[in-house]
Amino acid sequence: MAEIYHDRLDVRTALTSGDVVGLFRRALGYLWPQRRLFAARVGLMVLIYGLGLPLPWFLKVLIDHGVMQQAIPADGEGLLYPVFMGWFLDSAAGMDPLAVTIYALVVLAVLFLFVGYSGNTLLEANLAEGADVATRSENKISAGSSAAHGLIGLLDLCLAIRLSQRITHHVRGVLFSRLSRQPLTSLNLQRSGDAMFRVMHDAPSIAGICHALTLSPLAMVVSVGANLWVLTAVYGGVAPELVWIGFSAVGLTLVATSPLARWARRVSQASRASGSATTDELEEGFRNVAAVQSLGGSERQRDQFAAASRESFRQSLLLVWVANAVEWIAENVHLVFATAGFWVIFTGIVRGELTLGDTPVVIRMYSLLYETAMQFGRIWIDQQDNAAAARRVFFSMDHEVEPSAAKRTTELQWSDPLTLRFEGVGFRYPDGRRALDAVSFEALTGQTVAIVGPSGAGKTTLAQMTPRFLHPTEGRITLNGVDLAEMDTAGLRRHVAYVFQEHQLLTDTVAANLRIANPQAGIADMESACRLAGALDFVHAMPEGFDARIGRGGGALSTGQKQRLSIARGLLRGAPILILDEPTAALDPETERALLDSLSASREDRLTIVIAHRLSTIERADRIVYLDQGRVVESGTHDELMAKPDGAYRRFVDLQT
């Protein structure tokens, strides 16, 4: 499955029944922060079923004492009514049939105003949806239903929607935070479309589980308990047979559908994974559209997307087939037990044990009992889809993330001069590839250190260890003698500005992109940073200046402008450590010279690390560290290294000149 659907991290997707129980237990933990809203729903649910109990009995009143014109005696003797109808019978005693009918209709109207025909119909918030998990997840985000219509039902529905939204919002927030804090080694393996699918379409399943395993069973218990009490109190030994017939359907439903549970989980997992793969293809296609078009790969890209889309639809169809198989089994169980139940009802009427007015009462109660029993019996099978989605959510939450703080957090005096020291640092990627081996050197505040070497030498890997994007697998890195592993990661990164080789720009304004580095920066601060980076002229040339929008990923800018804006953002941060990955690669010589002059003039209070290939950038550095195959081959100033006739750095320079 991993090979088909692009997963490289989440490759073990099979679930046992025990795993599902564990997922359900964990999902229910998200109810606790919403306990007040949950308690309000429970209270409204009890009220709804309480107000709904008299409804069928007023139908009995209309039939027996309105249509059939049976008198209501003052003491109610000989009538089969529950105790909660006593107030109505006492007040209606002695009325003529028409008055009883009008009185009963008025009371029914009031009850309908508040709860409608409570219990047998649902007030739902669901919108139109397809068979795929993506569109169905949109309903789960704002899922809500109420056993009542009317005013109370509307209030209950609003609370239900709010509860689903709050749980989903909480889960999405935690999931997004965890995904965004994964190590770069993990982020580079997993496509972003998969992460988007998990946040947008898998996360709502947690709210679905919370509802299905708490409120739904509780509503069933309240409904069944109330109806059992009424049946036993009013009908004695006649109606309880209906109860046993209804509940016997639970066991048969579980036995008949449980073999499909494992299949339902597997198909749901495949449906979601294939949906993620389709999102991956869509995201990749649009993100790399220029490269695809320029290389004539549009047809191939279209075919890849079409294949992913077809697979997603195929898996969705299988999921629908499983759901309908379960539905077919349940309906046939219903047919068998409904036949037995109606036999008991009408046999009682024929024998004279029940009146004609008892028919709607018993049928409604039997319907509630049977439907409740069937719903209870299907909870396990119906939640397998949510279990598959919850597994994907919790896998991403549990996956390795960057530590927010070390076990022993140490703070530095960042205003002091800094000494950054690499001590025997080595690094292996998760697949076993060695990128660095026994790297040792130091850099000081006021210095510019250039990391130089051929492609694949480990330069970027080395630079990314200072802000702890990557962590050494051997050796250590210290700042003023403090191991970076003992420092708070977020606190460290507040004092490091990293300008990536690939331009990381938002689809927003120039100012919004700059203020990522310093949210409190004013126009004067941004102008100063842009002036140092050589970006101020083209920013001022835009009609809206700093408020100008730069397009998707900076698409409205040239490559050189993107680079200068990225450098300006790094400078605006005002961090004591600045790391530049190929800062002048896309700049013309004049702009490069101006930028390097600016950086040299403002370096006294800053430790600067530069990864570069251009000689014009390298030779200005105070110290050059030459890497080859992950090892430090040479280290020194430009003049010192050029003085070695057979030195690796000299050969590197000679190739450029």
Task: Give structural notes.
- With 657 residues, the chain is of the alpha/beta class.
- The strands form three sheets. Strands 8-9-10-5-11-12 form a six-stranded mixed beta sheet. A four-stranded antiparallel beta sheet has the order 4-3-6-7, with no helix packed on it.
- Strand 9, helix 23 and strand 10 form a beta-alpha-beta unit.
- Helix 2 runs antiparallel to helix 7, helix 10 runs antiparallel to helix 16 and helix 20 crosses helix 22.
Identify the notable features of this structure and list them briefly:
4-stranded antiparallel sheet, 26 helices, alpha/beta, 6-stranded mixed sheet, 657 residues
Topology:
Blueprint: H1 17-28, H2 35-52, H3 55-67, H4 86-92, H5 97-115, E1 123-124, H6 133-141, E2 145-146, H7 150-180, H8 184-187, H9 192-202, H10 205-235, H11 240-257, H12 259-287, H13 289-294, H14 298-350, H15 358-382, H16 384-398, E3 419-428, E4 434-444, E5 448-452, H17 459-463, E6 474-479, E7 482-483, H18 489-493, E8 496-499, H19 510-514, H20 523-533, H21 536-541, H22 559-572, E9 577-581, H23 589-601, E10 607-611, H24 615-618, E11 623-628, E12 631-636, H25 638-642, H26 648-656
Parallel strand pairs: 5-10, 5-11, 8-9, 9-10
Antiparallel strand pairs: 1-2, 3-4, 3-6, 6-7, 11-12
